[in-house]
Amino acid sequence: MPVALARAAAREMTLVAHARLGLRAFAQAPPSSDASYVGGSKVALGAVVLAIAAVPDAVFLLLLVPHAYVVLAIVLSLLDVWAVVWLFGLYGTMVARPHDLNSGLVTLHNGLLQSVTFAPEHVSDTIVRGRIKRRSLPRELREDAAFLGFGDIPILQIDLRESASVDHAFAQQHRPVRRIFVASDAPEQLQARLHALASSAAIRSPKLG
Questions:
Q1: Cα 181 from Cα 116, distance rounded (Å)
Q2: HSE (CB half, 13 Å, CA atoms) of 99?
Q3: I want to staple 19 with a disulfide (CB 3.0 to 4.6 A). Which of 88, 91, 103, 198 is the partner?
Q4: Considering only CA atoms, which of 59, 112, 55 is closest in space to residue 86?
Q5: Residue 143, number of CB atoms within 10 A of its CB
Q6: 163: nearest Cα among 109, 197, 127, 122
Q7: Which sign does the torsion angle of CA 155, 197, 140, 148 carry?
Q8: Does position 6 have pLDDT exceeding 70, yes or no?
Q9: How does pLDDT run across 179-196, given as a tens digit for each residue?
Q10: Contact 195, 39 (CB under 8 A)
């Protein structure tokens, strides 16, 4: 099997496997922490909206599409169902993959879709940006930056002294970045944790920085 196809199949199976967790998390939100980033996400809400619309959409398609193309109407209806499962699965991966702040390196996640790993001593500055979207950022801030987040959720800006590599589920290449915008349920706590990790790393390696 080609590598790209194998990656796509693994990604889709992972999303399906996490759909139940996403549905459960939407029904009962997990507790917030400096490592979580699901509280304000609109991903699960989008899945609910699609789920509510799936049945009437299917009825309209069967009524509007000519009888000779009824198979097409059924396929389009199944795609609606798949989109619901996909979004709940993505939300589930966001719950299952919080930011990793305990391994010596910092790994920030955006569910299954993206991750960025860097050494804590490479953090030069952090800014709590509040609830913003990527398109609302000035162009100069978006260049050579990674944006990890969905919906109306607080964002922490992290500037690095050295480039970190962005791992994207839809691309095999790793893109270097020096600035990260990352979603967080508790951005001030995440900010404090990062600076504490950076200080500890500096103490252990005084020649760094």
A1: 11
A2: 28
A3: 88
A4: 112
A5: 11
A6: 122
A7: negative
A8: yes
A9: 999 999 999 999 999 999
A10: no
Name the residue type at position 140.
Answer: E
Going from the C-alpha of 159 to that of each of 39, 47, 144, the distances in angstroms are 24, 33, 11
One DSSP character per residue, 4-58 reads HHHHHHHHHHHHHHHHHHHHHHHHSPPPP-TT---TT-SHHHHHHHHHHHHHHHH
* This model's pTM is above 0.85: no
Residue with tokens 């009825």: 59
pLDDT value of residue 154: 87
Tokens of 190: 């995440």
DSSP state of 172: S
Residue 176 to residue 151: CA distance in whole angstroms: 24
Q: How far apart are CA 182 and CA 107, in angstroms?
A: 11
- What distance in Å separates the CA atoms of residue 94 and residue 141, rounded to the nearest whole number? 25
Domain edges within the chain: 3-96, 106-204
Residue 120 is encoded by which pair of tokens? 């804590």
**Tokens representing 54?**
């799936």
Residue 165, token pair as written in the block = 């590599």
